[in-house]
Each structure stands twice: as C-alpha cells, then as structure tokens.
Write a structure and sequence with these properties.
The protein is an alpha/beta fold. The protein is built from 5 helices and 7 strands; from the N terminus they run H-E-E-E-H-E-H-E-H-E-E-H. Helix 2 packs across helix 5. The longest helix is centred in the first third of the chain and has 29 residues. The radius of gyration is 22 Å and the shape is elongated.
C-alpha cells in the first residue's frame, strides 16, 4: 500500500471518530431534560450568597417561609419590567412569610448597584459571581423564577416577565 492510500485511510478514520463524537455530544445535549433535577416537588438546591449590603443568605435558612427565587440581569428588559412589581409585592408579603431572593447572573457590583438604586429595590439582591447557583438551577433564559415552598420544595418554575397580578398570585401560592 502506498503512502497516499495510508494517509487517506488514516484521515478517514480520524474524521469518522470526530463525527461520531460530534453526534454523541449533540444527542446527549438535546435529549437531556434541562431541569431534570428541578421538577415540581424537587428539593431546591441550597446555596449561600451575599447580598449587596454584605448580608449572607443561605436558602436553607428560609425553611418555614415561601421563597420567590428570581434569576435576572441588568441588560434583560423583561427583568427590568418585573422588578418594580416584585418590590411592591415584597412589601405586601414580607410580613406574611414570603421572601424574595433576586440572584443576578454574574454582573459587576457597579451595574447591579446602579440598577437597585434606579428602581429603589428593597428586597435582597445577590450576585452569583461564579455562576454556581445559576448552574445548580440550570438557568438558561432570563428572567426565570423558582417558587419554593416552606418545606424547601420547588413548586413551580416560571420563565419570562411577570405582571404584578401574576407575582401576587404566585406569592399567595407559597405563603406559609
């Protein structure tokens, strides 16, 4: 067998192996359920994040309360749309055992603080700098809200901007 034929066979084998690896990667990516570990009724993954005022928030410390866990970004217009509504409802539901934890997806302190000031937000806002919490919750679009009941179970996952009326209804659902 001459050199050209051997080279052609080697290249063909390498291309076939690369093609098989690509097909396998695509298959496993498209057949897995994005929120497979976060179905309704699943335990909400615990996390510890520090808010913009330096206070540490550990999800498990909120057992006994409902938690409206919102993932957002300053660049996300639907996120900006729902934030004032969330703040209004937070003021109404905080005394009823419902907390809002807003998790920013890794932006700068400067951008997040400007956003908080602009919208005069009063609920805890944290930045997930390493995106560990975002990955644990398998967040792939913003905004997304996880409703966590007093037992620490995810009772719903809501994608997209919420109206004030829908936020109020969702907070009623997780009120202890």
């Amino acid at each position: 067998m001459d050199k050209k034929k051997r080279r052609l066979i080697s290249r063909t084998i390498i291309l076939l192996l690369l093609g098989a690896a690509l097909v396998f990667a695509l298959y496993t990516n498209f057949t897995k359920d994005k929120n497979e570990s976060l179905r309704k009724g699943s335990d909400a993954p615990n996390f510890v994040l520090t808010d913009m005022e330096g206070k540490e928030h550990k999800l498990s410390d909120y057992k006994g309360k409902g938690v409206f866990l919102n993932f957002w970004g300053t660049y996300c217009k639907p996120c900006e749309y729902e934030m004032p509504y969330m703040d209004n409802q937070y003021k109404n539901f905080k005394e009823q055992g419902v907390e809002i934890l807003a998790v920013n997806v890794g932006e700068s302190d400067y951008a997040v603080n400007n956003f908080i000031t602009k919208h005069d937000l009063t609920f805890p806002v944290m930045i997930d700098k390493g995106r560990e919490v975002e990955n644990a919750y398998r967040v792939d679009v913003l905004p997304v809200t996880f409703l966590v009941d007093k037992e620490g179970k995810v009772i719903d996952i809501i994608t997209g901007a919420l109206t004030e009326e829908s936020i109020q209804k969702h907070m009623e659902r997780i009120k202890p």
